[in-house]
Design goal:
Elements (H helix, E strand, L loop, with lengths): L8 E2 L2 E3 L2 E3 L6 E6 L4 E7 L3 H16 L8 H30 L3 H10 L1 H11 L5 E3 L6 E9 L2 E5 L5 H15 L2 E5 L6 H9 L11 E3 L4 H10 L5 E5 L2 H13 L3 E5 L5 E4 L5 H13 L11 E5 L3 H12 L20 H17 L2 E4 L18 E4 L6 H4 L6 E7 L2 H9 L3 E2 L1 E5 L5 H8 L4 E4 L14 E2 L2 E2 L12 E9 L15
Parallel strand pairs: 1-5, 8-9, 8-11, 9-10, 11-12, 13-14, 13-19, 14-17, 16-17, 19-20
Antiparallel strand pairs: 2-3, 4-5, 6-7, 7-23, 12-22, 15-16, 18-21
The chain binds NADPH dihydro-nicotinamide-adenine-dinucleotide phosphate (NDP).
The site of NADPH dihydro-nicotinamide-adenine-dinucleotide phosphate has 32 residues, from helix 7 and helix 8.
Amino acid sequence: MLDRTTTLQNYQTYIDGTWTDAASGKTFETLDPYTGQPWALIPECDNTDVDLAVEAAHRAFDAGPWPKMTPTARGKIMRRIAQLIEQHAEHLAEFEVRDNGKLISEMLAQTKYMPEWFYYYAGLADKIQGAVVSVDRPDHFNYILREPVGVCAFITPWNSPLMLTTWKLAPALAAGCTVVIKPSEYTSASLLEFMKLVIAESGLPPGVVNVVTGCGPMVGEPLVAHRKVVKVAFTGGSATGARVNEIAARTFKKVSLELGGKSPNIVFDDCIMDDAVSGAVSGIFAATGQTCIAGSRLLLQEAIHDQFVDKLVSMAKTAKLGDPALAETQVGPVTTPPQYQKILSYIDIARSEGAKCVLGGEAAQKAEGGGKYFVKPTIFTGVNNRMRIAQEEVFGPVLSVIKFTNEDEAIEIANDIAYGLGAGIWTQSLKRPHTVAQRIKAGTVWINTYRAVSFMMPFGGYKASGLGRENGIEAIEGYLQSKSVWINNGSGGGNPFIMKTAS
Ligand code: NDP
């Protein structure tokens, strides 16, 4: 059970295998979003700390044992990381609940699942293989090496700090890279607990994983700009992602971006209605709607629209708001004060655009199970896809219901958006799931399910939802580069003034 009585916990950050204060000595408060009270002090890093952390990661890559270690030995350390997460799953879950207000039930599911990423990529570490190429020259022996890219910067958002760090860290370590992580200033504590209980105890050499805490412009930007960082893996909003991409391009870094979404959850009239209603609720009210894959546009086929909305409202209005640390709570607080204001402002925008609020539409008061930053599960009907409430990411428990008549129209509406992260399809047809899935422009399509993820399935966005993929075998490619090696076993002759081609 979460202990909220303790005095302010004082954290240090972790650079080069050592616990340290920020170089400036400054700290900032982090809030418990359920109570709205500060509960911990986090080091306020700046340029100096970023430089120390990147230099440590660079030394660990250039001169340290990590990239030179056999991949089998790296895999063993990664399995140790997985075991330590298993051992501390409950503790890590509680800290994330305290720091970002996610439900304890959701967090336990996440922290108990996280080890699988480290087991999976530990198994992949010694299956990274180059190739021998029978090149088109006589007497040549050519091969391709697969090498780790070097120092990677990870920038993560506040909504799922540990899970989203895991998606990056496991493939990066398997590849032999070293890392500097910048968590969101709103939720740094769970990562620092992870460093203390897992990374520091795992046997990883110093400097392989480092953390710099502080706000985006002060810490994130210098990290992305640092000339010794060669790869940036970013998860966050699309506007920040574009800025990160621009800065990274100046020094030709590799970049992967997992960005925002406004995903369509499409319900056809041949669905199993109760399953689809539950899927719609899960799509938008799980994690208080603060997920990139939120099914925030519910597309309902005309014939079932009214009945579906009735059932949806009936289910959503029973959602139990309250303390995220309690197992029975179903909707917790909004994580940050600015996000709380943003959600309420989008509710005003939806009303002013003419959408009809059929549930919620306001903050939840204490007597209703609310706390400091609570918004009631909110449903707008009568939304058309051109409204801002249909086009812009709210990142909260606010659902836009859009009516459609046939499959072509559903697909047109689904794709008529800047984003392309996920999509849901609810139907009993055998043919439709495949044809619709192929026509949807999104990185993930769920059929008769929603919000399912796995370490085995690639995850990422089309369009403004991102670049590159996390999870699955292909994620490791983002942390590797090829080197072509040419060996001439014959004579070195030929015309030295022209390129050596086959002809
Ligand atoms: P932000 O884009 O505001 O922040 C993401 C991270 O970037 C934070 O660590 C932030 O630091 C940092 N940052 C902010 N400004 C800069 C900058 N100029 N240079 C470098 N780093 C910077 O997103 P949120 O934290 O608000 O997260 C919500 C967003 O993340 C939503 O759009 C959501 O869809 C997306 N997201 C995408 C996921 C995906 O996999 N596609 C998964 C989860 C979320 P700080 O917070 O300290 O300012």
